[in-house]
Amino acid sequence: MVFLASVSILGWLSLMPYFVRAFRGPGLTRPEFALAAVSFMGTAAALAPVMLELGMVGREASGASISLDQSATLQLVLLATGGVLSIIAFAARLLRLRRAPEARFSSVGVNTLGLAIGVYLCVVVVDQVRFLRASGDDVGMLAWSIVRTEFRDTVKDVRCDSEVMIVRGVESGVATYRCPHLPQITLARYSATPIFAWPAYEESRSAQLAQALRQLTPDSATPARRD
Asked: Residue of 72, 98, 128, 223 with fewest CB within 10 Å of its CB?
């Protein structure tokens, strides 16, 4: 929910002030137009993973075949690009406001909020990459809805109502897993490493889960490895 709210607010912050200025006041100067373009590109990049996800959900609903070995790299790059461009645009706006003695407090607040959202998008990317890289290739998606019944008697320390989880460190003997609070808001859900945007997930550790997964045969529902 935090992620969707942030992206929605970012879109409004990026474009609304310039629409107001264009239609109710003097035209945009070249620097203002350039900042508007950077803001728009940042918003588009941040929204792109959501649009890609909606497209995949639509394909699934229509009965089209969907590959489950896709990579989430594109979505992460788009989120990082959106965050960096938003930071550049809103930081530049704040610098311009410092040189304008007539700047309103509301304008400073709006641009500070936009800057914070850009930072948040970068935090989401760093948080996901940090989790994936911590265990090398020993990380991937677990179809929890499929194996939950099989693990009912052996895995009693995992609390997750989601259909999928991200699991790492199985070979270490203590698995670390992430369970999303709202499974509906999942990016790259058809990839080997779905993106659960911080802070909308629960992260915990389970030795029982690691042991159960290691006992599965290679053809069972083991975590899908990252490419």
From this structure: 98
